[in-house]
Design brief:
heterodimer; A: 283 residues; alpha/beta; Rossmann fold; 6-stranded mixed β-sheet; 4-stranded antiparallel β-sheet; B: mainly alpha; globular
Chain lengths: 283, 231
């Protein structure tokens, strides 16, 4: 079985407000999956349902083939989760924060140090968590999610509010987990993050998945102009149709050294999202 | 048991760094040592301050600590992390409850030493204090369950704590207050402690404490079923 996370026809309402409406997901092992949507689209609710924190009104959800509503202790040990609002014990050191989780999962000091090393907090092991920068706090939360060496990681907006350098460090850690064969379920409203990290993405709007697939394929699907924009060395720009006839012209421009840069006219995910929903992704 | 031990150890590690909780455990044991050694008034009952402060300690420390710890974990979303990591709500409550009980027992030991209790007197003192600590813990847990954050917990726990901690002292000066205070466990614990040297134990005290205990358990169960630990 290669499926890591599945969801079928998930619906969830809070009172009269429908938050999720017929969500289907099929995420393979070793995949980085990105769920994109503006604030309030239902991303966090979906993570909570998938991880058994709240129950859906209808539909089924499973992690590693286990029903999310009936997860056992061992099942929970097989996934790590970090959410934006998850706290740390501010008065306790980074090491002691992880020691609590280590005690629950029955793992030792070596695993704690390994998790700290993995997120680059080895030297801050004795620093109280309340004195960490925001980026370091996110890394500590990631280390906590890594403690049981889970197969699946749920990361809810892991780079939200971080500076570019800290965000880059988090990206590196996420990609390293993929290299180790882990499945990563990522929510974000940053399109560049999704394009850079994710094998597949889903665009979520008003509780529905409005687009699903590989980021580049989705962008290509919405490239209505299908043109190439070439910036020439003389400073001028030209546009040509993006078809088989473009090859001769392109090769001529490249061989003659007149083409400085070549761009396609395919939109980015933000533009795609706006086209589908009429709303901004980062709203 | 493993998860209860983890919660207990976490709290122990946090104790020295959490001044708000630490002061609750230390204040009355320190005050009793100072007052019993410094204040000498003619005709004052023997170990007056032990009996006075022991009841205040029982009415204040377990109640405020339980509510503060639970409310802080809810406010900072660390409780959710624990629950997501396989800790059951009951394990969490027992872990925090046993930590508060052990810390209060250390304070109780100070009162027992300063009060010079031994033998049967010591057993009666420990039994009365333990009953009071457990009842205050249950009350504190109810407040913690109902509070979304520390500020709410404080605003609820302060008047409740003052009721249980200071009513026995005020009842010494006013009969009307005393008649009202008779229905509270802290008043009955005060009477049990004051009557430690007597030969018998008043059945009324035990009945009131038992009724208080049943009410506290019912209140706790209702609070837990309605609110759970996370909301």
């Amino acid at each position: 079985m290669n499926r890591s996370i599945t969801a079928t026809e998930i619906c969830k309402s809070f009172g009269a407000r429908t938050v999720l409406n017929g969500i289907d997901l099929d995420i393979q092992k070793g995949e980085i999956f990105g769920l994109l949507g503006p604030s309030g689209a239902g991303k966090t609710t979906l993570i909570k349902i998938l991880t058994g924190q709240i129950a859906q009104d209808s539909g089924t959800a499973a992690i590693n083939g286990n029903d999310s509503r009936k997860l056992s202790g061992d099942d929970r040990k097989r996934f790590g989760i970090t959410m934006d609002n998850f706290g740390v014990y501010e008065r306790l050191s980074c090491y002691d924060n992880l020691k609590i989780i280590a005690g629950i999962y029955g793992v030792g000091k070596a695993e704690i140090m390994n998790a700290l090393r993995k997120v680059g907090l080895e030297e801050a092991a004795k620093t109280p968590a309340g004195k960490l920068s925001k980026g370091m706090t996110v890394r500590l939360k990631l280390a906590r999610a890594f403690m049981s060496d889970p197969d699946v990681l749920f990361l809810d907006e892991p780079t939200s509010g971080l500076d570019p350098v800290s965000a880059e460090e988090i990206h590196r850690m996420i990609l390293a987990e993929k290299q180790r064969g882990k499945t990563v379920f990522l929510t974000t409203h940053t399109m560049t993050e999704a394009e850079k990290l994710c094998d597949n993405i889903a665009l979520l709007s008003e509780g529905r998945i409005v687009e699903y697939g590989r980021p580049c394929e989705i962008c290509r699907r919405y490239d209505h102009q299908r043109r190439l924009r070439i910036h020439l060395t003389d400073g001028n720009d030209i546009e040509i149709p993006h078809d088989k006839d473009a090859a001769d012209m392109l090769s001529e421009l490249i061989i003659s050294g007149r083409a400085e840069t070549i761009h396609t006219t395919e939109p980015d995910l933000e533009t795609v999202f706006m086209e589908i929903t009429g709303k901004e992704l980062s709203a | 048991m493993k998860n209860i031990a983890v919660i207990f150890k976490k709290q122990i590690r946090d104790t020295l760094k959490n001044k708000m909780v630490l002061i609750q455990f230390l204040m009355f044991p320190l005050l009793v040592v100072i007052f019993e050694n410094v204040v000498k008034i003619e005709d004052m009952p023997e170990h007056f301050f032990v009996k006075l402060f022991a009841v205040m300690f029982v009415g204040m420390a377990p109640l405020t600590c339980m509510s503060a710890i639970i409310a802080e974990e809810k406010e900072k979303n660390t409780l959710r992390v624990l629950l997501m990591s396989n800790v059951k709500p009951a394990e969490y409550l027992v872990g925090v409850g046993s930590y508060v009980f052990v810390m209060c027992s250390a304070g109780m030991a100070v009162f027992a030493v300063v009060g010079g209790y031994s033998g049967t007197e010591l057993v009666r003192f420990i039994a009365a204090m333990s009953a009071g600590i457990i009842l205050s813990e249950l009350t504190g847990a109810v407040i913690g369950i109902f509070s979304r954050n520390q500020m709410t917990a404080t605003s609820i726990s302060v008047p409740v704590m003052m009721l249980f901690a200071f009513l026995p002292m005020l009842s010494m000066f006013n009969d009307t207050i005393k008649s009202v205070a008779q229905v509270t466990y802290s008043q009955q614990i005060s009477e049990l402690i004051n009557g430690i040297g007597d030969s018998g134990i008043q059945a009324e005290s035990l009945i009131v404490i038992a009724v208080n205990f049943v009410l506290a358990v019912i209140l706790f169960t209702v609070a837990y079923k309605r609110k759970g630990l996370e909301t």
